[in-house]
Specification:
Blueprint: H1 3-10, E1 17-21, E2 24-32, H2 36-53, E3 58-62, E4 66-71
Length: 83
């Protein structure tokens, strides 16, 4: 999928962006959480869903309250395609 096609599909979801890292398209989103512990709790929730779905995103807790997630597959935006 081209980056332009991915960005067109991205219009159907709120808050996510497409990043191109070394020709790999990734879905990226960042949040601010209340504190470090809340960030870890959020990661536990994400981990439970990721494990069920068989997709394992990169999770980043930067500083004490900045959470970032990157998700990608061979077809990173397949989940955004209209049915």
């Amino acid at each position: 999928m081209s980056e332009d096609s991915a960005k067109t599909l991205l219009e159907h979801v709120t808050g996510w962006e497409v990043k191109n890292e070394g020709d790999i398209l990734k879905l990226h989103m960042a949040w601010k959480v209340k504190n470090f512990v809340k960030g870890l709790e959020f990661f536990q929730l994400v981990a439970a869903v990721a494990e069920e779905e068989g997709h394992h995103p990169d999770l980043h807790l930067v500083g004490r309250n900045n959470v970032k997630i990157d998700v990608w597959t061979h077809s990173v935006l397949r989940c955004l395609m209209p049915v």
